[in-house]
Each structure stands twice: as C-alpha cells, then as structure tokens.
Amino acid sequence: MTQSITNEILALVLPKFGYSIDDCQISLLGNGLINNTYLVKTTDKTFVLQCLNQQVFTSPLNVTNNADQISSHLQVKSDNNRYALTPVCQLRTTDNKNHVVVQGQYWRSLHYIPNCYTVESIANVEQASTVANAFAQFTAALSDFNSESLAEIITQFHDLSMRIVQLNQAIDNASKPLLIAAQASIQFIQSQQNFIDNIVKTTKSLPLRVTHNDTKINNLLFSTETNKPVAVIDLDTCMAGYLMHDFGDMVRTCCASIAEDSADLDNMSIDWNMLTALTSAYVAGFNGSLSEIERTSLLCGIKLMPFMLSTRFLTDFLNGDRYFKTTYARHNLVRAENQLQLYKLFCQQESLLTDIVLSTPALNATYK
Ligand code: GN1
Ligand code: MG
Predict the structure, then answer these.
(1) Do 231 and 219 contact (CB within 8 A), yes or no?
(2) Which atom of ligand 1 is nearest to the CA of 57?
C-alpha cells in the first residue's frame, strides 16, 4: 500500500471511528507479516487501527467476531481477578460495529495499552519465565471457553499434512530457478516422512482447546514500569487448536539465538536454559490442570512449529511470495532455511530436549 493511497483511505476510515484525519497523527506499528497496522494519536486518545489482509483472512468478520468473543471472556475473568493480564478489546465504530468496510477493505480498531513495549528476542531466563507464564495464563483462562463457538479463521491452519500438500502443489507449479534455489530444503522436508506421520498420529490423540496460534515473543506487551508482560496481543488466529502449537511457537522464537529471518545459520544455537525456564513457567501457568498427554505433546510442538513454518515459508517462496510480506527476493527462502535449521538442531539433541520438556518441574511462582 503506497503512502498516498493510505492517506486517502485513512481519511475515509477514521471518521467511521469518530475522528477526522486532520486531528490524527498516524504511524506504522509492529512487525507483523500479514496485516497493515497503525498507531493513531489524537489530542485525547491513542488507539490502534488495522487493515485486515483479505488474501489471508478471507472472512474478515470471523476475525473480528472471534476477537470480540475472546476479549469479552477474558474481560469477565479480569473483572473477577481471575486473569492478571489486560484483555485487548476492539473499539466500536460510530454505528457500534467491530469493523468498517471502506473501498472493499476491512478495518478495525483496537484498544491501545499505554506505557508498553514489545521485544523481538528474549533477554534472560527471568524474562523467559514471565513470557511463558503469560502465554500459559492466556490459554488457561480460555480453558472453559467452548472452542466450537469460534470460527475457523484459516482452514487447517496448523495441519502439517495439509501444509505438505500445499508445498507439493507449489513444487508442481514453480518455475525452474525457484525450484533449484529451494531444492535442498525441499529434499530435506521430503526426507522427514516419519516425523510427519508421527505428528499426524500425535495430533489425533489430543484435546482441542482455544489456542492463540501465533505465540511469538513479539505478540506480548511488556510494561515499561515493571518490565513484566501486560497483555497478549494479535488475536487474529485465535481458534480451536492444540496446546503443542502455542508452546512450540513460543519456544521457537525464544530459544533460537538468531531471528527467524536471519541467514547467519552457522551462528544459530539453542539456549537450553531458556527452554528449561519456559517449560517450568508454562506448566506452572496451568496450575496442575495439564493432562499428561498434553504435557508430553509439548515435545512434539517444539519440533513441529519450526518445521511447519519452514514448509509454509518455502511454499510461499515457490508461489512467488504471495502470502508473507517480504523485503527482498529470497526473503521467504532464507526464513524457510532458518526454521529448518532450528528443527534440525532440536532433532540433534533429542534426549536433552526430552529430558528438559518432560522432567522439568513446574515453577513454584506466579507472575502478576
Ligand atoms: C505471521 O503476521 P504475523 O507476524 O502476526 C503468520 C504466523 C507465522 C508468523 C511468522 C495468519 O504472523 O502464522 O507464524 O507470521 N500469521 C498468519 O513470523 O499466517
Ligand atoms: Mg499474527
């Protein structure tokens, strides 16, 4: 979206939320790979404005309606002192809707929590404990929410078999140069059929619950005052899912020594102390309510999430970068190789991984 188009459209969108563009200072917000997100400041209010990506979210109303349901549930818990984080709510338009459609594009506005910051990489094990506890609290607070009342935002979003089918379709349709560039990664993914079969088997035995499905560390807000997590943000993909997905996504962004789009693979390592801290605090956040089957599944989630994301990045690379935002030609390939390397590193240390994830006791503390 170019700046001129943005301003023109924003001038039409803002009045629907009760503001004129002339009274607003607007800046880009966040590093999301999908939506366009802005911070809007007026003299008396600051809020978040977001244009939903309709190529990805083909039913944008499902996104805003799910978000309303989730935040209402969390707000009730928060009002009763049963949820220590701040629920992020969607604001209403002047005609009391949770979205507005302008020139065919869906926009929504979100409550802005002041005095907060986000982080792209974890600082230390103390911070890891607070991160894991926050994500666990979020999911635990939704454990009495009927996941069937939420729409399936993206069909089979975290279904590995479906992601492999999509990769195979992309391979069939890709140009020769892209196939050559991606060859090593394609071959490696195709060599992991036992792992894929094992995931399919594990998934069949797991209970469905409401999951966030994008538990990257940068989807947490931290307080500038306490430096502790204040809110879980980006509820776009909240829907029925499996706990191992949320745990694995958190681990992949907290335990790798380099960012998910770094090409510096020789310097990628896993911080095992961080994994221990994450596991301990995550399990503690469920206050003894995790079944053995879900606890054991966390192990699968750690390998699954980088592997599946690698498959998704590679598919998008072969499809000509139609899904994830990219800033250079091989960006998605670099991301795919990065996540595959992370998967390999976890696989190389299978017994250490198992030991940490299955034997680390729950942390005896809560973070408020
Ligand atoms: C996308 O846009 P963002 O950064 O919230 C993606 C996630 C990926 C993530 C990788 C709807 O999330 O699944 O894990 O990029 N979201 C969607 O950084 O596909
Ligand atoms: Mg997201």
Answers:
(1) no
(2) 11
All CATH 3.30.200.20 domain ranges in the chain, comma separated: 7-112
Say if CB 168 and CB 315 are below 8 A apart.
no
Low-confidence ranges of the chain (pLDDT < 70): 1-5, 365-368
- Can you give the pTM of this predicted structure? 0.94
Q: Which of 279, 272, 242 is nearest to 257 (CA)?
A: 272
Instruction: Output the CA 170–ligand 1 centroid distance in Å.
Output: 19
C-alpha 104: how far from chain center: 26
Give the C-alpha separation, 188 to 303, whole Å: 14
How many other β-carbons are positioned within 10 Å of the β-carbon of residue 22?
A: 7
Name the nearest CA neighbour of 232 among 257, 210, 256, 252: 210
Please choose from 34, 261, 307 the residue to mutate so as to test ligand 1's pocket, defined by most ligand atoms within 8 A of CB. 34
CATH fold, domain 7-112, is Phosphorylase Kinase; domain 1 (3.30.200)
Cα–Cα distance between 359 and 290 in angstroms, integer? 14
Give the amino acid at 44.
D
Q: Which of 283, 279, 308 is nearest to 200 (CA)?
A: 308
Q: Which ligand is nearest to the CA of 154?
A: 1
DSSP string, 119-147: -SS---HHHHHHHHHHHHHHHHHTTTS-G
Token digits of residue 133:
């506890």
Give domain 125-359's CATH superfamily. Answer: Aminoglycoside phosphotransferase (APH), C-terminal lobe (3.90.1200.10)
**119 and 218 Cβ atoms separated by less than 8 Å:** yes
Predicted confidence (pLDDT) per residue in 86-112, tens digit: 999 999 999 999 999 999 999 999 999
